[in-house]
Amino acid sequence: MAKVPLPGGELEYAVLSALWDLGRASARDVHTQVGEPAGLAYTTIAKVLDRLCLKKLVARERDGRAFEYRPVIRRERVEHARASVSVRELLGDEPRPAIANLVDAVVAMDPELLDELARVVAQRRRSRRGS
Questions:
Q1: Where are the alpha helices (DSSP H) in the chain?
Q2: What is the C-alpha to C-alpha distance for residues 66 and 50, in angstroms, rounded to an integer?
Q3: pLDDT in tens, 52-62
Q4: Is the pLDDT of residue 1 over 60?
């Protein structure tokens, strides 16, 4: 599977999320949903949309005098890639102690999640073995 380009920060991610929710939108629409509540200028959102286009996460088409933007990558692919990066950063070069702490954190959040984690691990093992 090809490497998924990631949004470059929380603002890029928020703009991309707005496009996933809206389907297609103008920069003005995205600014209304993301920029205005955060107190950001319209031009900031327009620049973020341009960066997302350069990363090929978003496509744009001319609609009169403005552009209409749409996501070109599914939310699930970006979420998976972001989670993978976060887990690699969390585990670091010596993952065993971090994994033990992660399990402790999961149990503290919701002990039933540990059962879910065990089911996912078992399923991954079966799929690796080809069962």
A1: 10-22, 27-30, 36-38, 42-54, 75-91, 95-109, 111-129
A2: 13
A3: 999 999 999 99
A4: no
CB atoms within 10 A of CB 22: 15
d(CA 52, CA 68): 13
CA distance 11 to 52: 11
CA distance 131 to 51: 43
Element (H, E) at 36: helix 36-38
pLDDT of 21-35, one tens digit each?
999 999 999 999 999
Tokens of 93: 């070069």
Rounded (10°) CA dihedral 11, 17, 23, 25: -20
Cα distance between residue 124 and residue 118, in whole Å = 10
C-alpha angle with apex 119: 104 to 124, nearest 5 degrees? 105
pLDDT in tens, 33-56: 999 999 999 999 999 999 999 999
- Fill in the DSSP letter of residue 24: S
CA dihedral 84, 89, 94, 100 (to 10 degrees): -70
